[in-house]
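worker-3 :: picked Dihydroxy-acid dehydratase
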Amino acid sequence: MKLKSHELLVGPGRAPARAMLKAVGFTDEDLSRPIIGVANTWIEVMPCNFHLRRLSERVKAGIRAAGGTPIEYNTIAVSDGISMGTEGMKASLISREVIADSIELVARGHLFDGVVALSGCDKTIPGTVMALARLNVPSLMLYGGSIMPGQFQGHDVTIQDVFEAVGKHASGRMTNEELKDLEDHACPGPGACGGQFTANTMAIAFEFLGISPMGRNGVPAMDNRKDDVAFDCGKLVMDLLKQDLRPRRIITRKSLENAIAAVATTGGSTNAVLHLLAIAREAGLKLTIDDFDKINRKVPLLADLKPGGRFAAADLYAAGGTTLVAKRLLDAGLLHGDQPTVTGRTIEEEAKGAKETPGQQVLRPLSNPIKPTGGLVVLKGNLAPEGCVVKVAGHSMTHFRGPAKVFDREEDAFVAVKAGQIKAGDVVVIRYEGPSGGPGMREMLGVTAAIVGAGLGDSVALLTDGRFSGATHGLMAGHVAPEAVRGGPIAAVKNGDIVVFDIPKRRLDLELSQKDIKARMKKVKMPVPRYSSGVMGKYARHVSSASEGAVTS
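worker-3 :: tokens ->
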């Protein structure tokens, strides 16, 4: 094989490089083999990525067994769940770009022949794949796996329940002792958030994209089989190297459509829109926000998963896993079955190996869908000319009309919810929280969960130019674009204005004429940027619209 690493390591002129690598323990034999980067997103601050050092050792063992030399390196991660509702949450989406940049830079700087990327929390998953698409060397991504459900008062719980409990507690529906008991038992060990929230959504999406081996991401974090999966992924990257099978042969327009279908049928996170748009851009492929709605209209909602449903990610794995999801979609004629995957098999070949657990209730049959269409819809209108994203899994509201309660930052809205100032029939509007205006497009799980916890989930709507957590449910429109700070009409909304959601017509409108909106926009005074320097200021200046994936350029 002609190896990139030979440029770094072969010949008398490369003696200095070899000398430095020998200083950290590599031998001449090690340096004669293909060099495989193991890009790890391990960090000690969160359960999602905490166990990845264990998995990286197994990946490295697999690489060595298949004749390669692994070199592990690390990048950053920011916990959405921990930073949620604070100024720190603004760092989350920005971290996706830093993760991708840093993985790319190390691999380019050291001429790695291939890469295995290990991911866990929300932004590490797309960040790793963005880097693999840029590098386009034989590579794959392995997700660290889901946390197991916690136990509270005799039933399964996830971190979603804790966020919603804050609203229950504030409204007097939960005692201090009950909240503490839930807090102590919701997260029983390592692994990413347990519902079909953003981490598990993207883990499934990337199996359908083909860049992760089918069925392996779904193995829970602390299941002993995850170690075997990691070892096999180490061997698998060496097969990719021998075949010269690279990410841009796997990531195609058709495989992106497969990934969107997987998100739609499992009721996945709205964040999938941002992340798949970003992946398409890195792979040089055309994908628009409207493509998500087109596919969603064709794909039935089959998975009864949290936050809108009953079951957690570990339950889906036990029911038959993502391979079973693929078989459902293949049987319905909703997959491009000829698309290649990192296993060397097509998505159709993978789907045909599905095994369904008898009596499982997590994934419905095609004859009995939860809904005839998928879990995500895209609305446009005079409030969102470039579009916004609504997750319709878990609720049945198709229309909503109500007066706006307007807030210019998430914290103010959260205080209003806790103080009982939001009433049934209101439309909560949170602006200046977009990619540039935030900056960083914070998730609003603190607010949305507090609304649900206060018993208002079915009687209040919300819209924002920020984002939602995958754990959000209810009638919530995120990613409203253009964002307020970039001249979006969301900046013109005033308290008491009537806002209309019309899901069947895919509309989000302010009951105000275009002439009046333009007149108001001329009088809008944009807030002073919260950050003018550092990574936050740089990101605010260069980030694109949410409708384009909130990517930097």
